[in-house]
Amino acid sequence: MKRLIFDPEHVQFRDSVRRFMQAEVGPHVDRWREAGVVDRDVYRKAGQQGLLCTWAEEKYGGAGVGDFRFEQIIIEENMRHGDIGFYINLHNDLVAPYIAKLGTEEQKDRFMPGIVSGEIILAVAMTEPSTGSDLASMRTRAEDKSDHWLLNGSKTYISNGILGDLIVVAARTDPNSRHGLGLFLVERGMAGFERGRKLVKMGLKSQDTAELFFTDVKIPKANVLGSPTGGFGYLARFLAQERLVAAIGFMATAQTAFDLTLDYVKERRAFGRPIGAFQNSRFKMASMRAELDAAQTYVDQCVMLLNSGDLTAEDAASAKLVTSELEGRVMDECVQLHGGAGYMDEYRISRMYTDARISRIFAGTSEIMREIIGRGLGLDERKLT
Ligand SMILES: Cc1cc2nc3c(=O)[nH]c(=O)nc-3n(C[C@H](O)[C@H](O)[C@H](O)COP(=O)(O)OP(=O)(O)OC[C@H]3O[C@@H](n4cnc5c(N)ncnc54)[C@H](O)[C@@H]3O)c2cc1C
Question: What is the pTM of this model?
């Protein structure tokens, strides 16, 4: 279905992003999967190409473009022609906004130029060994020592956990309040900050997911983001964009899987005809086509709502829920239509299948998305008696 939200300047931008992904990212996928991490250099190259934080102010090296469609295009082209392990969307749209929107002028002057050039790679650390969905239960704590904060605790499953130079770390600052959290800028090389294992995962093989440990890390007061007790509210505020960003990626991978499967069913033959000629294959492809178009239209509408400042937490949760569940179904059907080849690592669809399994879990599980949407309907067990 023709997508209505893009103007000629977006189409032109997409062409240049595609060329970048095809030249600088796609060719390295196998090597990066082997290494379990992408080259640091790819961030610098993306920075040189103007693909890091298009929205950042010009004084920091950005283009100052407040139109999220440009970021959407970068995510889509990376998923299709680049590599899901190159977490440019985490850097651009999930973590950098914390610094740009909550940071002081001094913090922005210090970090934004490196973030936009790709010298500084970003990560965000909320999840802990004992808690993920229930963020208010986090145990990592920061104590106010008058001229600095003292950070102790650990985080796990952190994307860009090995490559990350600047980590936004959420920690409890008020032991008496469930929501008393702060956000701290932890820099590579700070004494007491250590990285653990690069975790071995079912999919996302080129993505460096790691544990982080903090033992008496002295965080200068100048590295606190916003109010030291306002962290919970900040996380909630930024999670809506995070979930839409996730949904954009899920649609792009599902669409890519669909396209390569369509090619496959036209070529692969069984019983004297292409397998796409069987009614079952045709119906499966038709159902996926219809569902993908419907979900894409919803996501595109959410991008326009984000642009106008009208995207709600419930809208974003719906986008994440619907697209991640659809992506899972599409990957499964596409593997099935590939037959045994679909189970072979050398076929992209096999890798896409395992990569996609995380979509229903991270950035908030499907169950948590249903909670957010349900509470938005007034169906909140904490308030209904
Ligand atoms: C590859 C990968 C990358 C990640 N990257 C990051 C990152 O960069 N930074 C970061 O901070 N975190 C990251 N995470 C963590 C991720 O966000 C969490 O794993 C996720 O939020 C779920 O938390 P959990 O693992 O603790 O599961 P749990 O919270 O223990 O949930 C287990 C199950 O219980 C269900 N459940 C929990 N609460 C409820 C409820 N109220 N109602 C119904 N069901 C419920 C869940 O839906 C799930 O099915 C990443 C995880 C992975 C696997």
Answer: 0.97
**Ligand 1 neighbour 132 (Cβ under 6 A):** yes
Q: For residue 90, which atom of ligand 1 is closest to its CA? A: 8
325 an active-site residue?
no
pLDDT tens-digit readout, 113-141:
999 999 999 999 999 999 999 988 999 99
Do the bridges between strand 141-144 and strand 122-125 make them parallel or antiparallel, or are there none, so unpaired? unpaired
DSSP annotation string for 313-336: HHHHHHHHHHHHHHHHHHHHHHHH
Contact criterion met (CB below 8 Å) for 22 and 49: no
- What is the DSSP code string of 353-381? HHHHGGGGTTTS-HHHHHHHHHHHTT--T
Nearest to 215 by CA among 239, 249, 242, 190: 190
Residue linked to tokens 């929205």: 55
Q: Which residues of 173-203 are buried (b: 16+ CB within 10 A; e: fewer)?
A: bbeeeeebbbbbbbbeebeebebeebbeeeb
* Active-site entry in 242, 291, 325, 346: 242
Ligand 1 site, residue 127, Cβ cutoff 6 A? yes
